[in-house]
Amino acid sequence: MGIIHLSIELAFDFIAFLMGGILILQAKDNYLKLYWGIIASCIGLFFIWENIGWLMIVTDTPEYRFTSLLSIDKMLKWYALASVVSLFPMASLYPGYFNHLRLLVFLLPPVIIITTGICYLFFNGHLTPVYSLNEIWSHIQEKDIQLRLGLFLVSILLPLAFFILPLASKHAFRRINRNMYAFIGFMFLFLSIYIAFTLNINEFVFNLFGIAALVFTLLFSTLYLFRENPFSDHIQMIPINKEEEEEESALPTSPLFVSVDNYLKQHPTYTDKSYTLQNLAEALNEKDKAVSQAIKSGGFTGFREYINCLRLEYFKQLASEDPNKNIKELMYLCGFTSRTTFYRNFADKFGISPTQFIENLQKGTSNLEK
């Protein structure tokens, strides 16, 4: 790898790190955006450290011919990150599902397995060197080979199970969108690279891993900069009775969310462009965290997404009352300050632009995609 190549990659690493920092600062009660920002910053920081190291000591691609396969430290690094990232589809489709207890339950197996691997490295340290698949099978009786093979299989199957479980469910608060499918594609690409990287390390796999990780981080960080939840779309929640709720296996909507929703429909204070979660919580005499969790039980990723949804519905109401009114004026009356944000949110929710919606109203129709 030449110095120019490494320098360009280092510049993109810094961009990934900075984007992660921006996401952390703007996340507020959107924990998905917060955690993605942390992951992006960590990935950017890791590659910055690695590429600065290569710039200081080498100008060529490192040689892997004498690196043992089934490296425990590489598998543990993958498993730690994969265990967290694989929970994003579930967290995206079920906002508010992960409380401290559920998160502990899901991450307890990875924590135990990773701790076991670290303890083996520190307190035993015996690792049989293997440089081909044939050598793995010929040393299968060795305890460390069995441990390494077990770790390898678990580090593939468990994140895969976390990843596929919510996608197989027919009952969710939100609908999968095309960005989720792109996310799925990247995850399977990384899984393939990880298998190749663990069983047959070479220059091509090494470069592919770095490029894919950087593209993955930058792409989805960009999506998170402009969207509260880029992997799924909110579905209009319909109140159901207890019997239907149990039959559908849906997560129950918090009674507090009903109070929140009723209050804001009676008092459209959300049209104030500076309206905050704290303002809403004070009006209801509730804690910020409780109101935020209630909003998430309604299928929204956070306060900002919920308020924007209410503003869009209010825009529809105002536009229906006076279709000849200026779109920009209506937009400001609803509480939006950015034309770009307004148009993007409207198109994402209804499938058409505000201009098309107004034209349909003027023609006597208002067909919107739900």
- Please work out how many helical segments DSSP would assign: 17
Strand and helix order: HHHHHHHEHHEHHHHHHHH
> Which percent range describes the beta-strand content?
under 5%
Specify Rg, calculated over alpha carbons: 25 Å
The strands making up the biggest β-sheet line up spatially as: 1-2
**What is the averaged pLDDT score?**
86
Number of domains: 2
- Net shape: elongated
Structural class: mainly alpha
Low-pLDDT windows of residues: 238-249
Main sheet record = 2 strands, antiparallel
Explain what this protein looks like in three dimensions.
The protein has 370 residues and is mostly helical. The protein folds into two domains: 62-234, no CATH class; 252-363, Arc Repressor Mutant, subunit A (Orthogonal Bundle), CATH 1.10.10.60. Helix content is 70%, strand content 2%. The protein has 17 helices and two strands. It has helices at 3-26, 31-57, 72-85, 88-93, 100-123, 133-138, 143-168, 178-199, 203-226, 242-248, 255-266, 277-284, 288-297, 303-321, 327-334, 339-350, 354-363, and strands at residues 174-176, 232-234. It has a two-stranded antiparallel sheet with strand order 1-2. α1 runs parallel beside α9 (203-226) and α11 packs across α13 (288-297). The longest helix has 27 residues, at 31-57. The chain is elongated and about 80 Å long. Mean pLDDT is 86; it is low at 238-249. Keywords: DNA-binding, Membrane, Transcription, Transcription regulation, Transmembrane, Transmembrane helix. It comes from Phocaeicola salanitronis (strain DSM 18170 / JCM 13657 / CCUG 60908 / BL78).
